[in-house]
Amino acid sequence: MTLPSAAEAVVQPLEVTRRPWADLWRAVAGNRKAVAGVLLLGFFLVLAIFPGQIAPHSPTAEVSGAASVPRARTGSGRPPTARTSSRS
Description:
mainly alpha
């Protein structure tokens, strides 16, 4: 068994390899609506990753003060309305 000489060796061109996401990035970057969608998705992703830094207070915490006083209600349990009933 002998090795082929340099003259006999077949030279094949190198294949151009693309990164897996290059085609997708090129398609998204060329479309303005797709760019807006990616930015919106990124915004919601940041909200999901850092919720404690964006809204540090508990949404279920009880608030004391004038803002927590309940409004007046009618006897039926519904809030009062501006119109009055003309029925007697």
